[in-house]
Amino acid sequence: MKKILISATFLISLAACNNEAKDPVEKADSTNNMKEEVTPAAVQTDAETTDFLVKAANGGMAEVDAGQIAEGGSTNPEVKKFAVMMVSDHTGANSQVKALAAARNVTLPAGVSDDKKTAAADLSKKTGKDFDKEYMDMQVKDHKETITLFEKAYDNSKDAEVKTFISNTLPKLRQHLDAAEKIQKAL
């Protein structure tokens, strides 16, 4: 067992060295793939659960980042109120995702993916009504994708605790989508 752990640590370290130029989500996926190769099957987390936790962490961090940008970038009180809710709710969900990942030895991305960084950078360049429209369009799109991710993970994961997290979080995500669509239509 010691040899397996030493080998696993070495391979993970080696993978980390080779991942410097990669997107944070790609780095996490690569590290998790290495862990799967060297971890005994009896203690492995299923691939669907690992993939879900990585994607949920990326999406959650992106929601917090975009919400923080919107808190300062919007002049619309409804958009600002929504952004505050996003930061608060997704910060809480992110903490739960981190705890679930840590308990399963799943490596999460250290930051948001490159595509999410680009979207946030593009958003921060907008002002006024263009900013509000871009942010709310982003929120509707992202929440639809997140709900689909959570529903698929619920159907495919074999992990009861992760499924409980998903079933407890989905209603809040649906509330977010409903609120985002209402604000989007009002703009």
Keywords:
single chain; about 190 residues; mainly alpha; Ferritin; 7 helices; globular
Question: Secondary-structure map with pairings?
Answer:
Blueprint: H1 2-18, H2 24-38, H3 47-73, H4 77-103, H5 114-124, H6 128-156, H7 160-186
Helix pairs in contact: 1-2, 2-3, 3-4, 3-5, 3-6, 4-7, 6-7
Could you write a compact summary of the structure shown?
This protein is mostly helical.
Word description of this protein:
The protein contains seven helices and no strands. By secondary structure, it is mainly alpha-helical. It has a single domain (46-186), classed as Ferritin. Helix 1 (2-18) runs antiparallel to helix 2 (24-38), helix 3 packs parallel to helix 5 and helix 4 (77-103) packs antiparallel against helix 7 (160-186). The protein is globular and about 50 Å long. The chain starts with a helix and ends with a helix. Mean pLDDT is 87; it is low at 1-19 and 38-43.
The CATH homologous superfamily name equals: Ferritin, core subunit, four-helix bundle
CATH class: Mainly Alpha
Report how far apart the termini are. Answer: 60 Å
CATH topology: Ferritin
pLDDT < 50 stretches? 1-19, 38-43
CATH level-two architecture: Up-down Bundle
Seen as an oligomer or otherwise, the chain set is single chain
Structural class: mainly alpha
The beta-strand count equals 0
- Biggest sheet details: none
Share of helix, binned? over 70%
What's the alpha carbon Rg, rounded to whole Å? 18 Å
Helix and strand succession? HHHHHHH
